[in-house]
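User: quick one, fold this
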Amino acid sequence: MVIRAILGDALLNPATGEVTREAVVLIEDGHVTKAGRRNGTQVPRDAEKIDAAGLTLLPGLIDCHVHLTNLGEGLDFARELTTPPTLELMRAVRAARRTLDAGFTAVRDAAGSPAGIRMAIDAGYFPGPRMFVTVSALSQTGGHTDSHFMCGADLDIPLPDRPYMVVDGVENMRMRVREVIRAGADWIKLCTSGGVLSPGDQPHHSALTLEEIRAAVEEAGVQGRKVMAHAQANAGIKNALKAGVATIEHGI
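Assistant:
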């Protein structure tokens, strides 16, 4: 059994705002077992001591909306057209490590990362936070994730582990939700409005019908998943709430 003792100046409890001075956190085989003041916590003699002098200890942070495969530099079409899917995966590997190093121990990836990234982290192939993935973000034809351009080019190339993102109609929505879950999604993501980077719509445009959104929520619920919605338009936000979507993303 590997035991580590992190010795810090303070320990923050975010639930209460309480700060404990001269703190210690004990970790046994990767799990926190004790946390408190050093003079009230028995530290095993053989524990590996980690000096965190001058630092405040706190539980891991949670980010509910990330895109680990993205560079965060906007949409560069030339770069996208010359980027193989394997390079996107390597971006996610790097981003996962950086995210964990920044103190985030759990994230929800809001489209882009296939389930294999989560599985690789869980298997210990590389360090990263605990992940909940949506795999693909579903939108209507001409919607936020429709990458078809007027010249005829389409950047949305379906991959075995990332289902096609464009969906129209209630029954087609049910099928697409099933496909995304089959690909390993923990959450279902819909786009009930346009966005700032999509070629065919605007953020104030509503997207998907109330019936389509309800179908997604119902189908996801059957398989124990919840739905999140990229929603910026007023009507898109209201439709998502009426349909039973669990979380609204952006909401502006």
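User: anything notable?
Assistant: The chain is about 25% helix and 30% strand.
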